[in-house]
Amino acid sequence: MNRAEPRSRRAVLRLGGSAAVAALLAGCGGDPGGNGGEEDQSENGGEGANQSEDGNETNESDGDGNETNESESGGNETDGNETDGGNETNESEDGDGGASGAIEPGEIQLGGETQAWLGVSPDQIADEENPTLTLQEGESYEITWENLDGAGHNIQILDDNDEVVDDYETEIMSEQGETQTLSIDEVTGEMAQYICEPHQATMNGDIEVQ
């Protein structure tokens, strides 16, 4: 009985030692695995931080794009101003054209009858009695008139002193339907009026020189 007891104690110690060795081996195997997991997580965390920084840089580049758009809108404003300036130039030119009522160099047509000279052409004197002839200084014109009533008429260009300017006058003509032409080589500032000599009280009109 006494010999059997030591053997049972040795068996228990052996079993206990085996269990301890197994625990140590298990512990050593677990530590590398745990450390590796923490390192992977830290590395993953680092990569995540880098990605977030990259995202911030992308946002900053987006901001630069917005600034570029603002400069483009500034260009549109400049284009609008230039267009407005072009419109103002056109208006000023139209205003100058409308202010000038001078007859273009060329032929002027009148009808002659005792009561008055009758404007025929250009359109700006058409159907007017004793129309004012606005002529351009230095230009040449031809004044053609038709005898409308068979009375004796002629045409003369006078100055402010009622003197004929540079012999600009025609002979008296009394045939109805006939025409005469007075050629003016160069308009001068001394020209003041045109008349029919026999009927100057009724057949007279002003000349304006521009």
CATH class of the largest domain, please?
Answer: Mainly Beta
CATH homologous superfamily annotation of the largest domain: Cupredoxins -  blue copper proteins
| Adjacency order of strands in the biggest sheet | 3-9-8-5-6
Global structural class: alpha+beta
Shape: globular
**Strand percent estimate:** 15-25%
Number of domains: 2
Low-confidence stretches: 1-26, 28-99
CATH architecture of the largest domain: Sandwich
Query: Largest sheet at a glance?
Result: 5 strands, mixed
Question: What would your notes on this structure say?
Answer:
This protein has 210 residues and is α+β, with helices and mostly antiparallel strands. 46% of the residues lie in helices and 23% in strands. The protein is built from 1 helix and 9 strands; from the N terminus they run αβββββββββ. It has one helix spanning 4-99, and strands spanning 106-113, 116-121, 133-135, 141-147, 156-158, 164-169, 179-184, 193-195, 204-209. The strands form 2 sheets. It has a 5-stranded mixed beta sheet with strand order 3-9-8-5-6, with no helix packed on it. Strands 2-1-4-7 form a 4-stranded mixed beta sheet, with no helix packed on it. The longest helix is centred in the N-terminal third of the chain and has 96 residues, at 4-99. The termini are far apart. The model is unreliable at 1-26 and 28-99 (pLDDT under 50).
Main attributes of the structure:
Immunoglobulin-like; 210 residues; 1 helix; globular; 2 domains; 46% helix; four-stranded mixed β-sheet; alpha+beta; disordered N terminus; five-stranded mixed β-sheet; 9 strands
